[in-house]
Amino acid sequence: MRWVLTLIFTVLWFLGVPQPTVKLGVMVQCQDDSLVLNERYYSADSTQWVSFSKVQFYWKPIGEDYDYRLVDWSDPTSWHYELPVDELPTELECIFGIDSLTNSQGVKGGDLDPIHGMYWTWNSGYIHVKIEGEASWSTARKQRFMYHLGGYQPKHPAIVYHTFQWPAHKKHVQLIVPVDQVVGFSRPVYGENIMSPGEEAAAILLSLVKGMELK
Amino acid sequence: MRLGAVIAVGVLLAAASWHQDLWERIQPAHFPMPNQQAVSTVLDPAVVQLGRQLFYDPILSRDSTISCASCHSPYNAFAHTDHDLSHGIDDQIGIRNAPPIFNLAWAKAYMWDGAVHHLDMQALAPISNPLEMDASLAEVVEKLNQQPRYNQAFRTSFGTEIITGEYVLKAIAQFQATLISATAKYDSVVLGTATFTTQQQQGYAIFQNHCNSCHTEPLFTNGEFRNNGLPVDSTLNDWGRYTITASPADSLLFKVPSLRNLSYSYPYMHDGRFLSIREALSHYTDGITQTPTLSSELEQGIRLSDREKTDLIAFLLTLNDRHFVMDKAHHFPRSML
């Protein structure tokens, strides 16, 4: 009888043991500090300024257990993740943007639900990144800029795979996303608006990801 | 845990079998397999009915005045007749004629320019277009969540009263997938239960000689994009698929429409410029504009006598599917009254 009870408790214990996790927090930054939406940031000589009204992007760690997540800087609940892991990782491989297979499979739910406004209605495909705001250099209406980056076709996909080195011995890390790496105090060569897939959208996303780091 | 897993697998298999039965019931015997890259072939009757309800409900538009059926009339093979260009919310005129809706499960892409490649996502385009329904999916979902009858319907269909954008789009897509036109006289001939008249047979031979390469049987479209020589309407400057791909090779290419149900779905072409079948045929014989992307099949034009045009029209009329058009299963659902 004792061994039966021992067996039962052992099985229950294994069933009840939660899988180890690590925690990841996303921090969108401007001028090396947490971005405040709709606040003006000034250049060193105070002659130029930029403000961000929207920063959203899709990402996920590579692995079967991970789903795509939508980071929306206006929604703090979207900044934090628990990642189930077998052991403390040494690196984290991620995809920024939605892969072509997922883009082609029809409507999805959760963070991929088109209700979040991250799916083009005039052309099939997710919008992988949205960065919107105003800037002193913008000649568009109300000095706005609007970058909707997407595209999954073989030519100019706005999809970036990147491997981060995981900070040693840390169970809680931050993914730093310096948005001012792609939108700063001078007018970019690609202008104020990008609304469709193409070479520029792909290049901007690559630049954004290259500026990210895991701390 | 294992026993639970076994039970769960058994339930799933049974459910899949049931869903497969629905598709097998509606799949025409003489049609190819549906395009599983573009449409979910798992059909749930409850979801289909919910999609039918949404299709006819103007709640999908900003001011709740425009439904899908406003442009896609069931009595016109779900096309928009009497208008060369379809109109939407606030009586705004669009830039294209709303195409008929049938046999979408076999399509490779949707819309005249192939903008949409999966049927699940198609409804998002007209819902969001400011000239059509001018709503956001979020607004639509919010309105639906305030209607107890829809909470109940979504619970029946998806097992939850919480309505999401995903469920709305899937429901509409499943209803659209069931709109199958395959019971015209032509289909009866193919299945051996009817025969063409002499004139229809002659017209069929003309069709096979001149039209079949693009309007391929039995769907009467190859689902691809072609420049069929229409001169550009300078009031619209619609460059077709080029607006999606930005590839010069796609300039003036539009999706090859099906030739089924022509009597119900006039006018013809992406901008509704032809009111009659004969007018359309005259374009192919006398009106082709040579451009760099012109379909190779039309470089020499098509030569048809007036008699041959009449015979061809006689054949094309055998593609009218009155049973499809009058099928009450697709019409306005009484439960909405």
Descriptive overview:
The complex is a heterodimer of chains A (215) and B (337). Chain A is α+β, with helices and mostly antiparallel strands and 215 residues long. Chain A contains three helices and 13 strands, in the order αβββββββαβββββαβ. Chain A has helices at 2-16, 100-104, 199-210, and strands at 21-30, 33-34, 41-42, 49-61, 69-72, 80-84, 91-96, 127-135, 144-150, 160-165, 172-178, 193-194, 213-214. In chain A, strands 3, 4, 5, 7, 8, 9, 10 and 12 form an eight-stranded mixed β-sheet that branches. Chain A is elongated, with a radius of gyration of 20 Å. The termini of chain A are far apart. In chain A, 32% of the residues are buried. The mean pLDDT of chain A is 91. With 337 residues, chain B is an all-alpha fold. Chain B contains 13 helices and two strands; from the N terminus they run αααααααααβαβααα. Chain B has a two-stranded antiparallel ribbon. In chain B, helix 2 (45-55) packs antiparallel against helix 6 and helix 9 (198-210) packs across helix 12. The radius of gyration of chain B is 21 Å and the shape is globular. The mean pLDDT of chain B is 92. Classes of the chains: A alpha+beta (215), B mainly alpha (337). The A-B interface holds A 15, 104-109, 112-117, 119, 121-124, 196, 198 and B 1, 37, 39-40, 115-121, 124-125, 127-129, 136-138, 141, 164-167, 169-170, 173, 244, 246.
